Amino acid sequence: MPLLVTDYSWTQTDSTVYINVPLKGAKVGKVDILSTDEYVKVHFPPYLFEAFLFEPVDDDKSTAKVGNGVVLISLPKRTNKEWDHLMISTNDKEKKKVIRQQALLKYQDKLTSESRSKAEKKHAEKKYALETMMKLEKEERDTIQKMKDTEREKTTAELAAWQLNQKQKAEVETRVKLQRQRSRQTQIKAVTEEQENQCSGEGNVCKSEANCKKKQVVLPAPRLTGNIQVTFTPRVFPTALRESRVQEEEEWLKKQAEARHAVNADTEELKDLKEEHRNPDWLKDKGDKYFATGDYLSAVNAYNLAVRLNRKIPALYSNRAACHLKLGNFHKAIEDSSQALDLLTPPVAANAAARARASVRRGSAFCQLQLYAEGLQDYHAALKIEPHNIALQADIEKIRDIIQGTTADPDTQ
C-alpha cells in the first residue's frame, strides 16, 4: 500500500492555486505526476499524493516543477475567485474512484492526442522536407538543363561560324584554283601557238620533232592525300567538364563504387549458401522450430538471414521481436515490432491476428522499459482487434494499476 502524503501545503490567488508537495528524499527521475481539471496525483514510491480539487482548473495551462526536494504545482483557476478548501470534503470512495478513473481516461486521451499531434507534425515536416528536396532537385535539373542548352547554343554557334569560315575558305580556294587553271591554260595556249608558228610557219621547216617536244610545258604532279585520326577522352557524365563540379563528380563516382562494392560483397557472401538456405520461407520455419525449443539465438540468426533475403515479410520481424523479448533486447523488440506493423498495411481482416501479436509484443517491450503509457496504447490497439481476449483485458488492468500507483512495478519488487 502506498503511503499518503499529508504534510503538503497550498496557497492561492484569485487566478491560481499553488501546491507544494515534499519529495521525502525521492529521486527526481522516479516522480510520476498526473494532472487533469479535477484531479492531481504525485506518485514517488512508496509515497502518494492525491488531490480531488474543490473547483475545476485549466489543465492545459497547468505546470509542475520538480527540484530542491519539492514538487511545485501551479493550477490556473477557470473562475477568478478564492476557494474555501483545496479538495472536496467527502469520504465517498466510490465517487473518488470515479473521479480517478475519469482523470486517467482524460490523461490517456491527452497522451493519445499529443502523440497524434506529434505524428501529424512529423508527417508535415517530412512532407515539407520532401517538397523542398524535390524543389531543389528540380531547380538543379533546370540549372543543368539551362547549362546544357547554353553549351548547345554555344557549340551550335561555333559550328555555324566554323562552317561559314570553311565555306568562305573553299570559295577562295576555288577562285584561286580557277585563276591558276585559266592562267595555266593561257600559258599552254601561248606556248602551243608559238610552237605552231615555229614548226609550221610559212617558209620555215621544223628541224626535228624532238626539238618541238622540248618546248612543251610540263604540268606538276597532283598533291598527296591522307587521313588524320582524332580521339577524345571518355567521360561518365554527359555534360562538359567544369572545374567547379570536379569535386562533386568525384564524390558521386566514389559513392557509386562503394554501393557496387557492398552489393557485390553481399552477393558473394550469399552465393555459398545451399539452395534451401536461400529460401526465406524455409528459414522462417527453421527459426520457428528453434524458438519452440528455446534456442532463441539460433532463431534470431535464422530470421536475420531471411530478412536479408526478403525485407517485405512482416512475420520475420514479428517473430524476431518475440525472440528479442525472450533475450531481454527490448529496444530491438520495439524496432522489429514497429517494422512488422509498418508492413502490415493496410489493416484488413487477413492480417488482424498478425497486427494484434505485433502490438502486444511492442507493448510488452515498452512495459519492460517502464514506459507504461506507450505500452498501454499498444495493448489497447490489440484489444480493439480482439475485444473478447480475456488475457489482454487482464494485462491492461495490471498496467492501469501500475500507472495509477495502486500496484507496485514488478521490476522494483
TrEMBL record:
Q: Which SUPFAM superfamilies match?
A: HSP20-like chaperones, TPR-like
Q: Where are the TPR repeats?
A: 356-389
Keywords linked to the UniProt accession: Cell projection, Cytoplasm, Neurogenesis, Nucleus, Repeat, TPR repeat
Q: GO terms for biological process?
A: determination of left/right symmetry; epithelial cilium movement involved in extracellular fluid movement; heart development; inner dynein arm assembly; nervous system development; outer dynein arm assembly
Lineage at the top is: Eukaryota, Metazoa, Chordata, Craniata, Vertebrata
Cited InterPro entries: CS_dom (IPR007052), CS_DYX1C1 (IPR037894), Dynein_assembly_factor_4 (IPR052004), HSP20-like_chaperone (IPR008978), TPR-like_helical_dom_sf (IPR011990), TPR_rpt (IPR019734)
Q: Where is the CS domain?
A: 3-87
Q: Name one GO molecular function term.
A: nuclear estrogen receptor binding
Q: What is this protein called?
A: Dynein axonemal assembly factor 4
